[in-house]
Write a structure and sequence with these properties.
The complex is a heterodimer of chains A (394) and B (140). Chain A is mainly beta. Helices cover 9% and strands 29% of the residues of chain A. Chain A is globular. In chain A, 39% of the residues are buried. The model of chain A has no long low-confidence stretch (mean pLDDT 91). Chain B starts with 10 loop residues before the first strand and ends with a helix.
């Protein structure tokens, strides 16, 4: 019987399709200036695989030679970003994203997967301050520094102005060295694209070395424009915000989800780590570290690594693709770099000075996990010098 | 003397549940094809979102319809003796299987959630629905 045959054939064919996908390659092939880019593989069902949340449980991650990892603070409600004040006080941002609308059945499933990947603790919406009074490297005082924020992430201090990037605005607070709590109401310097859809909600923040400009990372509002191109206005970009007036412009665009904005201390150029697109296979598209040039377009959503077209975006924009700039340094696929800091002090071993430490949140759509660690990229003359070095995690 | 039709054993106030449910997936799958075509022509994501819901609701109601239909056919030997019942069952299994994979294709993001694979599957499903519908009419 024909329908029976076609049903059987369709079932076996499509089941094979679900089961198959390219096996992940060695991430080392995608680290550095010229990553290997395999052909696109679109899934029927992306592999959903996240590391189990276990907490500290007394175990500590294995560190690279000369380094040690220990708990700095415990029992935090989703700590997502850190900022060290000039007096050594450490700010810890407890935060979580705003709930978004469900526009497709897929999002119901995705929300469940995300829940599995995150702690069950309800995220805080505040900044804690930790102070080490006896110089043993561990804090002995804890304060609620700033409370009732709105999905905060980036923090930067310029003089006596402390800026916090909530998901929908950069807000200024008065700060004097030694303060342990800010009660003054914040003043909005510049509104940022927030809800009702707020897909990539973390707004990374830094200031220019002369302190006149702020730079905010505004992530895209989708994986690859599935919420409509109109939801992407002002997004997938790094904003330059004038500190004096609050006026803003898009400093660089086509950066899907830029985080870890930092000025490289030697050359005073802006660098960032970018989370690239998902669901094109286990090894596409590599996330990257790049210098950010004024006015440059880095491809998202139309293309990646220069002129590699993404077939999921319609209508395409060949005019933009033509000028898409390839990034400087690939970090391999789906590692999700969400934090970066240049090693500027002298407390680190000699080997770890001048380069960039990058925090990798870790993959979700790859059968072999990638990321879930801190890596170090050595710099020479303001550019990544060699292959990065992994801190090994047990 | 002609035999009367077998009474459905899965019924609501005498109405067979299989027949009550059957139009829901059919309408959903036809509507999926319509919204797929509109998305293909406009690239406005709203239409792909419609398709995404329609195909999933269609699959859920397909499964429920199939369960009711299977129970009826297991309970009544005479249903199983109709060649038409077998053709109907197998054709609709094909509709369900194709639509299940179509629902997966529609979980992709943006253009390739519809064009070309989703659109082709939606079209095949509607063709199957029409063919089996015509066949069923010709048997009665």
């Amino acid at each position: 019987m024909k329908p029976a045959l076609s049903a059987a054939a369709a079932t076996s064919l499509l089941i094979t399709l679900v089961g198959c996908g390219p096996s992940p390659i060695d991430p080392q092939r995608q680290i550095g200036a010229n990553p290997y880019l395999p052909p696109i593989h679109e899934y029927l069902l992306p592999p959903m695989h996240v590391a189990k949340v276990v907490g500290w449980n007394g175990a500590t991650p294995t560190a690279a030679a000369g380094l040690k990892v220990q708990a700095f603070a415990k029992d935090l409600a989703n700590p997502r970003s850190l900022y060290v004040l000039p007096n050594g006080d450490v700010l810890v941002v407890e935060t979580g994203g705003p709930p978004g609308p469900v526009s497709r059945p897929k999002e119901i499933v995705m929300n469940l997967v995300e829940k599995m990947a995150h702690s069950r603790t309800k995220p805080g919406q505040r900044i804690l301050l930790f102070r080490d009074t006896n110089g043993d490297g561990l804090p002995d005082q804890k304060f609620v520094f700033l409370d009732h924020l709105h999905s905060p992430f980036g923090v930067v201090l310029v003089g006596n102005d402390l800026y916090v990037a909530n998901t929908d605005a950069v807000v200024r607070f008065p700060y004097t060295s030694g303060d342990t709590q800010i009660t003054a109401p914040g003043v909005t310097l510049c509104e940022l694209p927030g809800g009702p859809i707020d897909h990539h909600w973390t707004k990374s923040l830094t200031a220019s070395p002369d302190g006149t400009q702020l730079y905010a990372g505004v992530g895209s509002n989708s994986n690859i424009t599935e919420n409509g191109i109109q939801a992407e206005i002002g997004r997938a970009a790094i904003w330059q915000i004038d500190r004096a007036t609050g006026a803003h412009r898009e400093f660089a665009t086509g950066l899907r989800n830029p985080n870890g904005l930092q000025f490289e201390p030697q050359t005073h150029t802006l660098w960032a780590v970018i989370n690239e697109r998902d669901e094109l296979g286990p090894d596409l598209v590599p996330d990257y570290l790049t210098s950010v040039r004024d006015g440059a377009f880095y491809g998202w959503p139309y293309s990646y690594y220069g002129q590699h077209i993404d077939p999921r975006v319609q209508p395409q924009r060949p005019d933009l693709v033509a000028k898409a700039m390839p990034p400087d340094y690939a970090l391999s696929s789906h590692v999700a770099p969400l934090g970066m800091v240049f090693s500027t002090g002298t407390t680190m071993p000699e080997h770890y000075r001048g380069g960039a430490f990058i925090g990798e949140h870790g993959s979700w759509d790859r059968t072999v996990l990638n990321g879930y660690k801190i890596v170090y990229v050595p710099f020479t003359d303001g550019r990544p010098s060699t292959r990065r070095e992994d801190g090994q995690w047990a | 003397m002609p035999l009367s039709n077998p009474r459905s054993s899965v019924s609501l106030r005498g109405h067979p549940i299989h027949l009550l449910l059957a139009p829901v997936p059919a309408v959903c799958f036809v509507a999926t094809l319509v919204t797929d075509i509109v998305y293909w022509q406009t690239a406005a994501m709203l239409w792909a979102d419609f398709s995404s819901w329609l195909v999933v609701v269609g699959v859920i109601f397909s499964v429920l319809t199939a369960i009711a239909g299977l129970v009826d056919s297991f309970r009544h030997r005479r249903v199983r003796e109709y060649r038409a019942a077998w053709v109907h069952g197998l054709a609709n299994t094909a509709v369900l299987v194709l639509s299940f994979f179509n629902a997966l294709i529609h979980t992709r993001d943006a253009y390739t959630s519809v064009v070309p694979t989703g659109l082709i599957l939606s079209g095949l499903v509607v063709v199957l629905l029409i063919v089996t519908g015509v066949y069923a009419k010709e048997q009665t």
